[in-house]
């Protein structure tokens, strides 16, 4: 018997899918001998099971896609937060460096914890405070070409370090004021 196509039209209402299935089965029963075969029920059940498995795979794929998007979004947010934290850290470090660099004093020098100094183009003055009434014989002051040591005798030096540039010790002097 040659097969011929017969048109089928119906409207699917998602709130009542069984009405659509009833129309499909009525159409198949009227237009074919499908339901007269013993295998009809098995074929319909396997088609329903296959549709159910296919739907479960689609739902699982959508959930996996959403989870991957959320993970990527969370990683992006974490990366931005990390970058912001690094920028803040660099800004804090820069502020710390700027605050650690003291401004020069009135004499274009620096006021430090144990001494201060001022400078002009021709000379440098280093002021080391000592207890009131200290005599010169209680002090040590060694001015060498590349080194300066100043302090009270019998105590660790107040200044003991290399000079930035060599000097002429013969042109240097110290005094108590």
Description:
The protein has 177 residues and is of the alpha+beta class. Among the domains are: 37-97; 110-171, Immunoglobulin-like. Helices cover 43% and strands 14% of the residues. The protein has two helices and six strands. The strands form two sheets. Strands 1-2-3 form a three-stranded antiparallel sheet, with no helix packed on it. It has a three-stranded antiparallel sheet with strand order 4-5-6, with no helix packed on it. A hairpin with a 4-residue loop joins strand 2 (116-119) and strand 3 (124-127). The longest helix is centred in the middle third of the chain and has 61 residues, at 40-100. The model has no long low-confidence stretch (mean pLDDT 89).
Brief sketch in words of this structure:
Residues 80-98 have a biased composition (Basic and acidic residues). The protein has 177 residues and is an alpha+beta fold.
Helix content: 40-55%
Number of helices: 2
Radius of gyration: 47 Å
- Quantity of strands, as a count: 6
**Share of β-strand residues:** 5-15%
Low-confidence spans: none
Task: Return the CATH architecture of the domain at 110-171.
Answer: Sandwich
Give the overall shape.
rod-shaped
In what order do the strands lie side by side in the largest sheet? 1-2-3
Please write the CATH class name of the domain at 110-171: Mainly Beta
Measure the end-to-end span: 130 Å
Within the CATH hierarchy, at the fold level, what is the topology of the domain at 110-171? Immunoglobulin-like
């Amino acid at each position: 018997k040659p097969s011929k196509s017969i048109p089928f039209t119906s409207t699917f209402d998602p709130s009542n899918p069984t009405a659509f299935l009833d129309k499909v089965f009525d159409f198949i029963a009227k237009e074919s001998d499908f339901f007269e075969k013993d295998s009809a029920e098995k074929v319909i059940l396997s088609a329903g099971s296959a549709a159910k498995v296919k739907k479960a795979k689609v739902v699982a794929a959508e959930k996996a896609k959403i989870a991957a998007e959320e993970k990527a979004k969370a990683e992006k947010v974490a990366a931005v937060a990390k970058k912001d934290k690094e920028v803040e850290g660099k800004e804090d470090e820069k502020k710390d460096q700027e605050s650690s660099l003291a401004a020069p004093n009135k004499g274009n020098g620096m006021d430090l914890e144990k001494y201060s100094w001022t400078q002009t183009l021709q000379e440098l003055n280093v002021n080391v405070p000592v207890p009131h009434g200290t005599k010169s014989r209680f002090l040590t002051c060694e001015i060498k070409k590349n080194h300066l040591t100043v302090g009270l005798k019998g105590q660790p030096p107040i200044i003991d370090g290399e000079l930035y540039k060599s000097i002429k010790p013969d042109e240097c002097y110290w005094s108590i004021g």
